[in-house]
Amino acid sequence: MQQHLRSALGPLTAALALVGCASAPPYEAPPPPAVAGYTASALAAPTASAPGLHGQAQQWVDGAVEGAWWRALQSSALNALVDEALHASPTLAAAQAVLTQARELHAAQAGATQLPQVDLGLGAQRQQTSPSAQGLPGNPREFSLYSASVGVRYRFDAGGGIDSSLRAAAARADVRQHELAAARHALAANLAMAAITRARLAAQIESLSAILRTQQSLADLAQVRTRLGQAAPDEVSALTAQAEQTRAALPALRKQLQQTEHLLAVLAGRPPAQGAPAFTLEDFTLPGQLSVAVPSEWARRRPDIQAAEAALRAAHGDLGVAIARQYPQFTLSANLGSQALTTSALFGGSAAVWSVLGQISQPLFNASLPAERRAAQAALEAATANYQRVVLEALRNVADALSAAEHDAQTLAALARSAQAAEEQHRVAVSQHRAGAASPVQLLVADQVLLQARSNLAAAQAQRLVDTVALGAALAGDPAPRQDPQASLRNPRE
Predict the structure, then answer these.
(1) Which residues of the chain fall short of a pLDDT of 70?
(2) What would the pLDDT profile of 351-385 be if each residue is shown by its tens digit?
(3) Which CATH superfamily is domain 50-106+165-327+371-490 in?
(4) In angstroms, rounded to a whole number, what is the distance separating the alpha carbons of residues 28 and 35?
(5) CA distance linking residue 198 with residue 187, whole number of Å
(6) DSSP-derived pairing of the beta strands 352-361 and 289-292
(7) Number of H helices and number of E strands within the chain?
(8) Which strands sit side by side in the sheet containing 329-340, from one edge to the other?
(9) How far apart are CA 148 and CA 339, in angstroms?
């Protein structure tokens, strides 16, 4: 039997030496962004400050943003809602299932190609033979034949096609893993922004309701003055129209508020009827420090960039598969068993039957293989370009968030000064009204200016919180280390 094995394996060993150049070139990871910063001009350090709620200056500090970055807002209600969403969100459940599917497909492919396949065969047949078929006299004979065998089959990865295919499958599982991390950050960001939006709308509704009450008082006062002959009728019409325009804006704001509450509930995995916490601007704290990692380090941890890089590795593996298909394929199979006329003799005393098969398959003419290789090369080039696009978009995302944090701080400072001026104007109007130097109309106008300034200030305060959330989501990284493709090949269940 050893002689037969040497006869079968000899041509295989000789052919293996002919395909050393069959594998694809080694994979080279793309370099990190070769930039020192995210914006063309240096950012103000620290940002502008303003008195009042969420007006403190923010300082940039070096460091990576990881984990539960939304906790920097110090809102226990938001933290609880995000934790609930991370466990109950159907979006994350679907992403987790897709990741599990990709890992199991990789494990199945590794198990089918890395180890020999062993099969057990049992058979029974009833047949009739005629001696005349062999030139002998006699009557036909009937008998039963039983067989049992163990077969082993293994395909050698001489051209690197199996290894490339496994690397591609592992990389696709990595894509799903990074997409799941990105979905977690996106869910937290959407929840935080919806909570801040809910707080802003509540503050604006309160301010607008106060403005409406002031405008209605102005219109009522104008009607009295008209009856006394101290005002023209068109003044009543103008003030009434202004009040009704304000009144018409309130249902739209309340609709947005309810829709935001519905969004909060659904993002958390709840039905809209279950409701969501009633967030206010006072529930949040603006962090005084914002961590900003250098682009080269940030790019290694941002999930969407890592997903694009994993897709690039998958395309490189597909190219290796296409190249390997143009070279010989080697398969070795062996069978060992026995045959007997009775089941009792099958496993005792029967003669063993065996076979060893070494097979080489070399494509001689297949017009599809060069086209498949070119298609795989084009797919690799597309993946490379897509990776570059994702990096550029991610850099723009961070640059926009940094610029927004800087300029919106300046906007809040200006609006805070405007609100202070409106409050001073209101105090003067109150003093003049008490002294009889200002009419009730002048006092009501001062009230309206002050309330409008406070409404604008609340919107600017909410915007600073939104900027902080946007920057945290843009800079957030995946705390899980990148999976080693070699480790995946060694243990497909990992």
Answers:
(1) 1-24, 348-351, 479-494
(2) 678 888 888 888 888 888 889 899 999 999 999 99
(3) Outer membrane efflux proteins (OEP) (1.20.1600.10)
(4) 20
(5) 16
(6) unpaired
(7) 10, 6
(8) 117-129, 141-156, 329-340, 352-361
(9) 7
